Amino acid sequence: MTNSKVIHHPGVIVEMMEDYYSHCAGVDFHDIKISHGAYLIGKDYYLYRDLMDKDLEFYERAYRMILKKSEYKDKILKNETRRN
């Protein structure tokens, strides 16, 4: 997972997964990838290609990792504000 171009763009992962989770159960994850890929193909072809190569399990793991890191950062920030 560390040599993927997609993980260097956590915003892409978060947007895709939030779109996927907010849609009804009948929406296929591939459709979400296609819609996000259509935006990226003209901007960064290599990111687009990496985005399309990954499956749902990859994105779910990456999304959980991002959320865990952001929760950890939030805890640190809360502790710093309490000290000040």
**Helix amount, in percent?**
over 70%
Broad shape = globular
E-strand count: 0
Radius of gyration: 15 Å
* Low-pLDDT ranges: none
Q: What is the residue-mean pLDDT, rounded to a whole number?
A: 85
How does the helix and strand content classify structurally? mainly alpha
Largest sheet: none
**Count of DSSP H/I helices:** 4
Distance between the termini: 38 Å
- The helix-strand sequence is HHHH
Task: Determine the strand fraction and express it as a percent band.
Answer: under 5%
Describe this structure as you would to a colleague.
This protein has 84 residues and is an all-alpha fold. Helices cover 74% and strands 0% of the residues. The model has no long low-confidence stretch (mean pLDDT 85).
Topology:
Elements: H1 10-22, H2 29-40, H3 45-53, H4 56-83
Pick out its properties.
84 residues; 74% helix; mainly alpha; 4 helices
Short description:
The protein has 84 residues and is mostly helical.
